[in-house]
Amino acid sequence: MKNQTVTVQKQGVSMPSVSLREALMLWLSSRNRVFSFLMEKNVTNRHALLFINFLLAFCAVVGGLFTSFWVAVVLVLWFVAAFRSLKKGGL
Predict the structure, then answer these.
(1) 30 near 23, Cβ under 8 Å?
(2) Most buried by CB count within 10 Å: which residue of 10, 13, 21, 66?
C-alpha cells in the first residue's frame, strides 16, 4: 500500500497530514456516541464494528438455519468467529 496522506480538518482547524493507516487507526480508536449512549460505557468505533459484525452474524444464523446444511454450517462458523473476535476485542 502506498503511503497516502489525508488532511484532517475539524471545525476549521487544519491538522497535519497523516497517512491513511494512521487516519484509520485514529478513527477506530475514537469514541462511538451511539453505542456509548446505548451501552452506558465508553465504546470505540472498533468495538462498535465488532458488535455490528456479531449482530449481522446472529441474524444470518437465525435466518439461514432453514436453508441447506452447508449454508447453515458456514453461517454458524461466521457466528463463532464473530463471537470470538468480539470477546477478544474486549467488549
Answers:
(1) no
(2) 21
For residues 5 and 20, is the Cβ–Cβ distance under 8 A? Answer: yes
Cα 19 to Cα 39: distance, rounded to the nearest angstrom: 32
40: left (phi over 0), alpha (psi -120 to 50) or beta: left
Q: How many other β-carbons are positioned within 10 Å of the β-carbon of residue 18? A: 16
Do 55 and 39 meet the contact criterion of CB atoms below 8 Å apart?
no
Is 90 a residue whose pLDDT tops 90? no
Within its chain, how far is the Cα of 90 from the centroid? Answer: 13
3-state secondary structure of 1: coil
For residue range 22-78, list pLDDT tens digits in order.
888 988 888 989 988 998 899 899 999 999 999 999 999 999 888 889 999 999 999
What grid cell was written down for 67?
436453508
